[in-house]
Amino acid sequence: MATSTLATIVLLSSLVIMILLRIPVAFSLFLSTVFSALIYDQGLATLVQQMVKGIDNFTLLAIPFFIVMGEIMAEGNISNKIVDFANLLVGRFRGGLAYVNCLDSMFFGGISGSAVADVSSLGAVVIPMMKKQGYDEDFAVGLTVISSCQGVLIPPSHNMVIYALAAGIGGQIAELLIAGVVPGMLLGFSLMGLCYFMSTRYKFPRCEPIPKGEWLPIVVNAFFPMLTLVIIMGGVALGVFTVTESAAVACVYTFLLTYIVLRSAPFKSLGRVLKNSLKTLAIVLTLIAAAKSFAYMMTLLRIPDALTSALISITDNKYLLLLIINALLLFLGCFMDMAPLILIMTPILLPVVTSPVVGMNPIHFGVMLIFNLAVGLCTPPVGSALFVGCAIGKTPIERTSVRILPMYAVMVGALLLVTFVPQISMWLVGVVFG
Fold first, then answer.
1. How far apart are CA 21 and CA 320, in angstroms?
2. What pTM, to 2 d.p., does this model score?
């Protein structure tokens, strides 16, 4: 057996075995790389250099700013103001709270950029409200979980930044962030369409109308938090800020808004916010560093080239290839978290989708990849958003997962539209950047 073949087998098989043994993914990535490098007689110093190179990037500064911003928003209970505003807009219709659940995730996703933060913050408010109005508890939890996935598509999204670095398109992060807006909204409005159908069939209740005298305070309270999205998207689109600069400005803005203007959180909570942010950031940066060395080893062993040839040998129909890739990602998303999958699968699949047979734009593929892995956040056994939602709603994961199958179907339908209709992702990019 050739040395390169043995090194490839060791690299991939040891990674799978260690993940199955529940060894943290970052350590699994690095150790499998070391084992393979020793067999291939590749110097370990080079691997360390690749790890340092992976995190020695100015663009990465956007990630801690986005993480801190989301933690501050969660600490300041900004979710209550977003829910009130969404209720003002659509709460008066039949099934109003179901629409509110979808719409507030769209708004909050444009502030926090995290599906788990969305479920944690909004779920604690909306799920009890829906239960009180008589909604099925599994429906309330499932809708909260599925709609939260808008948060990883609509800017700010640190997962988009991770993909850009893994794909080697760090200079196009702004375009990538903008490309996620329409797909994120497509998911939200698709879920609202399902809610309309279900509210008509099952006679969902209406919310109590909000007196006109309370409209202005609700709008004002929601306006200032939602300016965060304007700062990020508007600043980047108009060329006022780079993505990193807009993340920093938005982070400072949310700090001033939460702790000084609205005073919705005490200053003593800032230590907890920073501690939680550092924990998340340490995990993300360790993953990026380990994945960089893993990707280097895969390139050295020509694994992406071999996979590209293998997939194209199955079929040269680009639509069938994309269906195969989607099925693969949906399967993997059930067993691994989003960030490590982005870092592992991007260098493997990007050469396939950008080959002449498929001809996909890397930005379009990034949106498809993030959307696809967002489904994994909602599916057992590793769906983090699903676990949090069921914990808040006090529902069993097994039962909730089965009861929300129609929502999974809507989500996969929206994913396929994003996959096969590039304009959904690329239209706004063309409008904003020309």
1. 34
2. 0.86
